[in-house]
Specification:
alpha/beta, Rossmann fold, 5 strands, about 10% strand
Length: about 200
């Protein structure tokens, strides 16, 4: 069966976003990643900055910033916090994009939100630490933070966000139709596999 919607979750540094973008180009599908932030901001009526802050900080359940994100704006918006507004808008946007079809959606719990769709292929991209370190350094460059800590920090954020949003474990193979190791298989081969499955081959 042809898959008109593909969701791609990924470990930081696995090249998952690149795999998703290349697959979208090869299939002629629309590609959505940061574009979703702009759509969520428009849908929720919140500023892009607030949506980005939620995206960045709502993963830290024990932090002061998480507390602000969860409770800010509740009085002004009928008891609904900024975080709740962002979540509701994000779910609506992702479902709307899926209804239009022929699209690749990166992250943001898309696999969970669209879990009941038969035309959706949910993919997880991972790689070993060495591959990911080299990928991040070659694509994003060095910072003051140790590369290992950057990888652990990003993955921790995604893991906690995913769990808080879906009540499931991020990266667990049972949550996805397909899990690929880009370090072993290679970026291009990952793209080929996803495209073949999407076409129903």
């Amino acid at each position: 069966m042809k898959k008109s919607v593909i969701t791609v979750s990924r470990e930081f540094g696995s090249g998952g976003r690149t795999v998703a973008k290349l697959a979208a180009e090869k299939l002629g599908y629309d590609f959505y990643d940061n574009e979703i932030i702009l759509k969520v901001a428009k849908e929720s009526g919140l500023s892009q900055e607030i949506v980005e802050k939620y995206d960045e900080y709502a993963t830290y359940k024990n932090s002061f910033l998480y507390s602000i994100a969860m409770n800010a704006g509740a009085d002004a918006y009928g008891g609904m916090s900024f975080a709740n507004q962002v979540q509701i808008a994000q779910i609506k946007i992702i479902k709307d994009l899926a209804e239009k079809g022929n699209c690749v959606i990166v992250g943001r719990g898309g696999d969970y939100i669209l879990r009941d769709r038969d035309d959706c292929l949910n993919v997880f991209i991972r790689a070993d630490m060495e591959f990911r370190k080299n990928w991040v350094l070659s694509h994003y460059g060095e910072t003051d933070k140790k590369i290992e800590n950057r990888l652990k920090d990003k993955d921790a954020r995604r893991k906690v966000f995913y769990r808080s949003f879906t009540m499931r474990e991020w990266g667990m193979c049972s949550n996805y139709h397909l899990s690929l190791d880009s370090g072993v298989i290679g970026i291009e081969k990952c793209v080929d596999i996803i495209c073949d499955l999407a076409r129903g081959n």
